[in-house]
Design goal:
The protein has eight helices and 18 strands. It is of the alpha+beta class. The chain folds into two domains: 76 residues, no CATH class; 271 residues, 4-Layer Sandwich (Penicillin V Acylase, Chain A).
Length: 376
């Protein structure tokens, strides 16, 4: 970590620990709402636009989410009862598709790592200026669900994380935001929670993927403790799955913000924005090449320090970035060991913050983690 002459912005990430029945968990969140860094990520004053997701009514929308994540509506009801709110005021219902993020993911199977463990390296690029950014992550043990650690998605959804069985899921966007969506479905906040609470293996994750309606342009990198991994590229109800295991020629997968599977590559034509002064697609392809070249240089004994060094470097030498006005600033970086259920995490860009090691499933008390961002 180093500092320079830029003005610095101080923020905090909040860890909340949730246990009990679905209803009790929601009620607990309500009673502790003042501890959350950003209440706007939980409560909205807007009208739920369920038709945006292809649903005919609010009840239809809620029912579909409940099918994907059994118990979640009870949790939301507990939250609403705790604050005397109408469920239609819940931000989660406004943004169940979540927000596009410009992220980089590298999944390594045990044969490529010095520890002989399954490791996923991840860099989350977005913006601390986003008024709906949660700045919250959770260790969750809801009754009859798999215990998991994850970043929150508007209070009730989930972002990147892993569960007690050693299955992890990490998200990047597919970049095809100009594609006209026509398929009924919801997005990552619902999908990721469903995977983390219900799946112990890649096989179970694939089975659930076949059942869940997702329409938005996402790329999901999912890996398990047994040394299996998939990359799922999704758009408007269409998806492809690339699978690797210990018998595969290549023992790694990568994902940035464009599609790689031949079935999905034609949709990269909708990836036409500008990022960091260059075409969005080119930016994504540069980061993909960084990840691929890194593995080719350092395999078969890739270690934690090498990964830290790569993910601490600024674009175009690494995935980290400070362009928060453009939605291309590092919010956090993760090196997740799915074999021993631990992670190295850097909140904010590594240039201004230190890496720390956590075993999040063993954390039992809420706490805050300070983070420094350069002014954007």
């Amino acid at each position: 970590m180093e500092k320079n002459e830029k003005n610095l912005i101080k923020k905090k990430y909040y860890l909340t620990v949730l246990k009990g029945s679905s209803y009790d968990v929601g009620y607990t969140v309500a009673k502790n709402i003042d501890k959350f860094p950003n209440k706007r990520s939980l409560i909205s004053n807007n009208i739920v636009k369920f038709k945006k997701f292809g649903f005919n009514s609010f009840n239809d929308f809620k029912s579909s989410i409940e099918v994907a994540c059994p118990g979640i509506i009870d949790e939301i009801q507990g939250f609403c009862d705790g604050l005397n709110l109408n469920p239609k005021k819940i931000q989660f219902f406004q943004t169940a598709y979540d927000i596009p993020r410009n992220c980089s993911v590298l999944t390594l199977l045990p044969k490529l790592t010095s520890l002989n463990n399954t490791i996923v390296a991840y860099s989350n690029e977005w913006s601390y200026l986003d008024p709906l950014e949660d700045f919250t992550f959770v260790t969750s043990q809801v009754d009859q669900k798999l215990k998991h650690f994850a970043f929150m998605g508007f209070g009730f959804g989930r972002g990147n994380g892993f569960n007690e069985k050693g299955l992890g899921i990490f998200i990047s966007n597919g970049g095809a935001f100009a594609y006209p969506l026509t398929t009924r479905g919801f997005g990552l906040a619902v999908f990721v929670r469903a995977i983390l609470e219900q799946c112990a293996s890649i096989d179970q994750a694939i089975d659930l993927i076949k059942e869940l309606p997702v329409s938005f342009p996402y790329i999901f990198s999912i890996a398990d403790q047994g040394g299996n991994a998939i990359r799922v590229e999704w758009l408007d109800g269409k998806y492809s799955i690339d699978i690797i295991d210990e018998s595969s020629e290549f023992q790694y997968l990568y994902a940035t913000n464009h599609y790689l599977n031949p079935e999905m590559v034609p949709y990269n034509s909708y990836n036409d924005g500008i990022l960091n002064g260059e075409p969005f697609l080119q930016n994504s392809m540069t980061r993909k090449s960084l990840l691929k070249n890194f593995v080719q240089r350092h395999q078969p004994n890739i270690n934690t320090q090498q990964l830290k060094d790569l993910f601490s470097q600024e674009y175009p030498n690494g995935p980290s970035a400070h362009l928060y006005q453009e939605g291309f600033g590092t919010m956090y970086s993760l090196l997740t060991d799915l074999t021993n259920l631990s992670l190295n995490i850097c909140f904010g860009p590594p240039k201004y913050n230190d890496w720390i090691q956590l075993q999040p499933l063993k954390l039992s008390k809420e706490q805050y983690f300070e983070v420094t961002f350069p002014e954007s």
